[in-house]
Amino acid sequence: RGFFSRQELGSPEEKPQFPGASAEFVDHLEFIQPNVLAGIPVYRVMDRQGHVLRPSEDPQLPKEQVLKLYKTMTLLNTMDRILYESQRQGRISFYMTNYGEEGTHVGSAAALEPSDLVFGQYREAGVLLYRGYPLELFMAQCYGNANDPGKGRQMPVHYGCRERHFVTISSPLATQIPQAVGAAYAIKRADASRAVVCYFGEGAASEGDAHAGFNFAATLECPIVFFCRNNGYAISTPTAEQYRGDGIAARGPGYGLLSIRVDGNDVFAVFNATREARRRAVAENQPFLIEAMTYSNPQESAPNSPTSLPQTRPPSAPPKSWEFRAFRIGHHSTSDDSSAYRSVDEVNYWDKQDHPISRLRHYLDNRGWWDEQQEKSWRKSSRKMVLEAFEQAEKEPKPPPHLLFSDVYLEMPPRLQRQREELERHLETYGEHYPLQHFQK
Amino acid sequence: TSQVTVRDALNQALDEELERDERVFLLGEEVAQYDGAYKISRGLWKKYGDKRVIDTPISEMGFAGIAVGAAMVWLRPVCEFMTFNFSMQAIDQVINSAAKTCYMSAGSIGVPIVFRGPNGASAGVAAQHSQCFAAWYGHCPGLKVVSPWSAEDAKGLLKASIRDDNPVVMLENELLYGVPFEMSEQAQSKEFLIPIGKAKIERQGTHVTLVSHSRPVGHCIEAATVLAKEGVECEVINLRTIRPMDIETVEASVVKTNHLVTVEGGWPQFGVGAEICARIMEGPAFNYLDAPAVRVTGADVPMPYAKILEDNCIPQVKDIVFAVKKALNI
Questions:
Q1: Residues of chain B contacting A220 with CB distance shorter than 8 Å
Q2: Is residue B40 domain-shared with residue B182, that is, in the same domain?
Q3: How many alpha carbons lie under 13 Å from residue A165 in its C-beta half-sphere?
Q4: Would you give the end-to-end CA distance of chain A in angstroms?
Q5: Strands B114-118 and A237-238: what pairing?
Q6: Among B323, B93, B112, B78, which Cα is nearest to B216's?
Q7: Is residue B36 one of the residues assigned to a domain?
Q8: pLDDT tens digits, one per residue of A333-348
Q9: Which of B155, B188, B221 is the last residue of a domain?
Q10: Which residue of A has its CA nearest to B196?
Q11: Which of A16, B31, B71, B119 is the least buried, fewest Cβ under 10 Å from its Cβ?
């Protein structure tokens, strides 16, 4: 009995029997239109004035937690401004700010369990900050000083923290995506209550690794949440040149992923989506895709109050009251000057209208949980904390030279041991010719 | 002892390591239901199931990345490339992720992974399926690279690689899979390991040192037999490991024989032989050389398809004999 005997030929109930897809037959020629004009809608909880639109969607987080969200976002912003400046002044070699992403980092981090494994790309410092990583260690990594758990091995912002389940940042784009899937697979086998969250930008989602990662996550049935930060630009490449489909969220269903698009400037929308995605990913062993829309605003402006760093540009006119709209939301990195490819109008709209920090501030105000007095006091104390950590980090010595040879393999091979000993002997004899005073012994 | 093919030796090694440690698992294209593209994993999926032997979609960068991520957490993946030629699609994951992560994470993330598969020339598979990657992977600190020849090598090195906590690249050879070798009872035991980083002297000799890895080792032994009839006794060294290279064994041999010939299937420029020659120059054995070292390598062209051309693009016994005579000036 063959294929043709399964159904009567020409019967109206004839169904396709292809192993590769299950669907109906259709008898008129029609191409599926990629829908970019009316694409996947953007989920939000608050309007731009911080009012919750639909009360049932308010996650109703306790005051302390919302204050923690706010303080983490603002502290991140402060740290960014100071470290960005320090790079422009040649004090550190490189920096990447998180401007405009504060909501995506903190909203998602708050929705995770502390032991959920995080694979970031390089613009997720807020996740680590939310998990309690001290300013001292952020600075230590950027300065590559002797306190850096990374032993000064990497460029700035390549943080990693085993204790806080934040995998060390790796430069090549999107390579973390299939790795996160593999880790989720391993975690599924070991522990049914843990999730993996994998962050990447909309540009990195063009990489082949991303395609493979999404595909495998579905076929291997992994407890993973893919979190795409779509900020409209990949260095100078606008999304119109990065893709022609409806963003990243629209790709999800193609791979078998449950997908959603959220307003990345709305910390509660990010929180809700991440929390639910995480819960179901673990309960159902299936991957989820969240695309958080934000904006990366490069406009230069000075901070609202003076810092003790020498200013490299004159301060602009102080913004109205406490609004954070004027904070520089950044260039791709310190190696970029985006004024070359952004129009000023584009930048001003976002700057004045929308920012994750402003929105949350409105929410806090609406509830009477924060005021101008606390704002002033917090600004002062957070800035002081950052500056103190920064000044201290600058004073610390660099890691000892012999660390050059360790960790190439888990155990040091004889050849490297010999070379290390050779260096030690050399320094014993000729040490005075080297700036050893800057290095830890 | 008994005759065991390289394929069966590899299969034994995988079976034993899967049984011994539940963290070990095998992934790659066709490794499960098809028993492996070259049948190396025959019977393993049936025995260990979906969790331990995984068929992956066709994406080397995908499954290599998955394997690296799994290794970073707690598993010990054996990641099979259908041929190392295809590993180029995944090479960022192998080098930038697997090899460098321990260093770049300052020792906090280890990657106990084995990448394995056939390497080098096969028969009639032309340019994109015949490249030797010993030099490419051997170049990178953070990786260990092994290249077995005999069944014993294959088994002992694969087991040692799986048990090693560092990322290891194991370069097999498709033409060797079906070749039977003598395997001692000891070699067939479950605890038989070959240390990574130690070469083996396959044949003692006094007139010239032949250094090789993988399939050409067999050609060297044949060449040695031919040359013995003319009174030339070759010492044949099977490197077994490309990185870390056991140059000390080579040096000791050159000190004895005063002549060096390297033999490899890969291309000459920046190859394994080039590295051996450089290191001999840098070490004590240089003063014992009575003649410049001679390299026998694959021809410096992409591998042609036509059989007569292909045969002449890889080192043959006659090429090795010729090189020895050149080194000895006879």
A1: 54, 66
A2: yes
A3: 20
A4: 81
A5: unpaired
A6: B323
A7: yes
A8: 777 766 555 555 554 5
A9: B188
A10: A413
A11: A16
Q: How far apart are CA A388 and CA B330, in angstroms?
A: 77
Contacts of B62 in chain A (CB under 8 A): 178, 208-209, 211-213, 215-216
The verdict on B33 and B158 lying in the same domain is: yes
**B129 is a catalytic site residue:** yes
Q: Provide the pLDDT for residue A333.
A: 75
Nearest CA of chain A to the CA of B160: how many Å? 15
Residue A250 within any structural domain of the chain: yes
B123/B262 Cα distance (integer angstroms): 23
In this complex, the residue of B72, B104, B197 whose CB is nearest that of residue A183 is B72
**Per this entry, what is the length of chain A?**
441
Judge if A102 and A82 occupy the same domain: yes
Residue A343 lies in a domain: yes
Residue position matching structure tokens 């068929």: B55
Q: Which residues of B touch A190 (CB under 8 A)?
A: 73-74
In this structure, the answer to whether residues B98 and B219 fall within a common structural domain is no
Query: In the numeric block, which tokens belong to residue B52?
Result: 């331990």
Query: Does the CB of B110 have a partner CB in chain A at under 8 Å?
Result: yes
ipTM exceeding 0.90, yes/no: no
* Count of structural domains, chain B: 2
- Minimal C-alpha gap between A161 and chain B (Å): 8
Alpha-carbon separation of residue A313 from A83, A336, A342, B82, B143 (angstroms): 15, 17, 20, 58, 47
Note the pLDDT tens digit of each residue in B283-310.
999 999 999 999 999 999 999 999 999 9
Instruction: Identify the CATH number of the domain in which residue B12 sits.
Output: 3.40.50.970
Could you confirm whether A102 is annotated as catalytic? no
B236 close to B223: Cβ distance less than 8 angstroms: no
The one-letter code for the residue type at A223 is: P
What is the DSSP code (8-state) at residue A317? P
Q: Are residues B249 and B115 in the same domain?
A: no
Residues B11 and B125 in one domain: yes
Host domain of residue A148: 55-298+321-395
Q: Residue A374 is which amino acid?
A: Q
Interface test with B, best of A408, A417, A422 (most B CBs within 10 A): A408
C-alpha to C-alpha distance for A66 and A147, rounded to whole angstroms: 31
Residue B298's domain comprises: 200-328
The residues facing A293 across adjacent strands are A230, A263
B91 interface with A at CB cutoff 8 Å:
no
Closest Cα of chain A to B166: distance in Å?
6
Is residue A168 within 8 A of residue B104, CB to CB? The reply is yes
In a domain, A5, yes or no: no
User: Cβ atoms within 10 A of the Cβ of A92, count?
Assistant: 24
Residue A187 belongs to domain with CATH number: 3.40.50.970
Q: Output DSSP code: residue A318.
A: P
Identify the H or E element spanning A237. Answer: strand A237-238
Three-state SS for B28?
A: strand
A71 and A220 together in one domain: yes
Pairing of strands B2-5, B168-172: unpaired
In a domain, A143, yes or no: yes
Chain A hits for B59, Cβ within 8 Å: 208, 211-212, 215-216
| Tens-binned pLDDT, residue by residue, of chain A (441 aa) | 444 445 555 566 788 888 888 889 999 999 988 877 789 999 999 999 999 999 999 999 999 999 999 999 999 999 999 999 999 999 999 999 999 999 999 999 999 999 999 999 999 999 999 999 999 999 999 999 999 999 999 999 999 999 999 999 999 999 999 999 999 999 999 988 999 999 999 999 999 999 999 999 999 999 999 999 999 988 888 888 899 899 999 999 999 999 999 999 999 999 999 999 999 999 999 999 999 999 875 432 323 323 333 333 333 333 333 333 322 345 677 777 665 555 555 545 445 568 999 999 999 999 999 999 999 999 999 999 999 999 999 999 999 999 999 999 999 999 999 999 999 999 999 999 999 999 998
